[in-house]
Design brief:
Homooctamer. It catalyses: FMNH2 + O2 = dialurate + 5,6-dimethylbenzimidazole + D-erythrose 4-phosphate + H(+). One of its GO terms (biological process) is cobalamin biosynthetic process. By secondary structure, this protein is an alpha+beta fold. The chain has one domain: NADH Oxidase, CATH 3.40.109.10. The protein has seven helices and four strands. A four-stranded antiparallel beta sheet has the order 1-2-4-3, with helices on both faces. Helix 2 runs antiparallel to helix 5 and helix 3 packs antiparallel against helix 6. The protein is globular and about 60 Å long. It starts with 8 loop residues before the first helix and ends in a 16-residue tail after the last helix.
């Protein structure tokens, strides 16, 4: 058995920078993501913790042009429906936001949770079956940080109708969509979130989110 690694102050500072600069990217360059880079990020994602070691994440790479076009159409419909839910001024602000990079991103990854997996023998999810999906979210976050550390941007598109999207991608019925990710080299870099920059929603103070009991 080898000793655990030592993470010094310099590493912790780099980690803080990585987390702070992880941004949700919507504007991508068109140049491809190196295959080895993508494989390395996915391999790190698969080291994420999961309930009962169930590893329920399923990454679907969407390369087919017709399927991509169907995903864009799905987004466009859902995005317009979302805008219509807001009052006039907020709806106008919503429509000015760029909320996806589906047309520009060289890599699309749909991330599903296999909710009927037998891996892990059900440990830890009898009372909280949603832990399977939470495990997938952890894998997505790990992938995101790994990509950012390699200069690759990631955008999470949630304005999609999951059932039609699952049909578009012809995945098993037990798989539930957790995320649709756009992946590629960012056109620009920002330390602040786009929604802060465009006055949609400011960051909350961390101390306001900690409740003592």
């Amino acid at each position: 058995m080898t000793g655990s690694p030592v993470f010094d102050e310099a590493f912790r500072e780099h980690l803080a920078d990585l987390i702070a600069w992880r941004r949700d990217v919507r504007r991508f360059r068109g140049d491809p993501v190196p295959e080895e880079t993508l494989k390395d990020c996915l391999a790190l994602a698969c080291l994420s913790p999961s309930v009962g070691n169930s590893q329920p994440w399923r990454f679907v790479r969407v390369a087919d042009a017709a399927r991509r076009a169907a995903v864009v159409a799905n987004f466009s419909r859902c995005n317009e429906e979302a805008a219509e839910r807001y009052p006039d001024e907020r709806a106008a602000a919503y429509r000015r936001l760029k909320l996806e990079g589906l047309r520009e991103a060289p890599v699309h990854l749909a991330v599903f949770c296999d909710e009927e997996t037998q891996v892990g023998h059900g440990l830890g999810r009898a009372t909280m079956p949603e832990m399977l999906r939470y495990s997938v979210v952890l894998a997505i976050h790990t992938f995101w940080l790994a990509a950012r550390a390699r200069g690759i941007g990631v955008g999470w598109v949630s304005i999609l109708d999951p059932a039609p999207l699952s049909a578009i991608l012809a995945v098993p019925a037990a798989w539930r969509l957790v995320a649709y990710l756009c992946v590629g080299h960012p056109q620009e870099e920002h330390a602040d979130p786009e929604l802060v920059r465009h006055d949609w929603q400011q960051r909350l103070a961390p101390e306001s989110l900690l409740i003592e009991r």
